[in-house]
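Internal QA ticket QA-208
Title: Verify multi-chain structure generation after dependency bump
Assignee: T.L.

Test input:
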Amino acid sequence: MSDECLFCRIVRGEIPADVVHEGELTLAFRDINPAAPTHVLVITKQHYTDVAALAVADPELAAQLLTVAADVAESEGVARSGWRLSFNVGADSGQLVPHVHAHVMGGRALGHPAG
Ligand code: AMP
Ligand code: ZN
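Actual output:
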């Protein structure tokens, strides 16, 4: 846990979020600035800077994050139409919040990430 980290503060309930899933180790909530009709962030409650740090420290939890993301896609009704899972890592990706989060996006044709 980090005192200042935005997503740690959401985990602690200090900042409100539109939560769509809460597990023992994971939390999912709607992105405050959605880029698609469905845009949910899936995080670990424990603080890791990014998915690379999580994968090294706790591969089982990294796998659980993927399972929760797929469950969210299902419950959001985009499992059949398709959805995207993305993780930003570091400066060149534009990562804004240094707490691991999966973006689950869907509900419209998203275009190909490689352009
Ligand atoms: P990233 O650029 O991958 O670090 O993405 C951070 C995401 O967090 C952005 O899509 C923001 O819109 C989103 N975000 C920032 N603050 C909040 C918040 N308080 N609640 C929900 N989503 C947020
Ligand atoms: Zn954090």
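Spot checks passed. The chain has three helices and five strands.
Status: verified.
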